[in-house]
Specification:
A 5-stranded mixed beta sheet has the order 1-3-2-4-5. The longest helix has 16 residues, at 33-48. It has helices at residues 12-17, 33-48, 64-69, 96-105, and strands at residues 5-6, 23-28, 54-59, 77-82, 85-91. It contains 4 helices and 5 strands, in the order βαβαβαββα. It starts with a strand and ends with a helix. The mean pLDDT is 94. With 109 residues, it is an alpha/beta fold. 29% of the residues are buried. The radius of gyration is 12 Å and the shape is globular.
Length: 109
């Protein structure tokens, strides 16, 4: 069981941009209802595809500079990083099969 990694502005580069594995970044906030709905889905995918990608969570209230740098304007937003670069943004609540399809399209699933 792989737990999501909570990152801050201080360690975003090290944990996401320098990761040797693909990274799925979940931009969220404590007050966001749809964020709480999507969280268990991405955690299930991280467990199903264990070792294929790293699940990282970024609280936009605690790391606004990271969200701003990546142009995150609404949450939840999932961003797939490959080789340290964002390759796909998924905005809003999506069902698990849609998220899995996006991961597969990026070559992860």
């Amino acid at each position: 069981m792989s737990e999501p990694i909570h990152v801050t502005e201080a360690d975003f580069e090290a944990k996401v941009e320098k990761s040797t594995l693909p990274v799925l970044v979940d931009f969220w906030a404590e007050w966001c209802g749809p964020c709480k709905m999507i969280a268990p889905l991405v955690e299930e995918l991280a467990n199903e595809l264990d070792g294929k990608f790293v699940l990282v969570k970024v609280d936009v209230d605690k790391a606004p500079a990271v969200a701003e740098k990546l142009g995150i304007q609404s949450i939840p937003t999932l961003v797939i990083f490959m080789g340290g670069k964002p390759v796909k943004n998924l905005v809003g609540f999506l069902p698990k099969p849609e998220i899995k399809k996006a991961l597969a399209a990026a070559g992860i699933a």
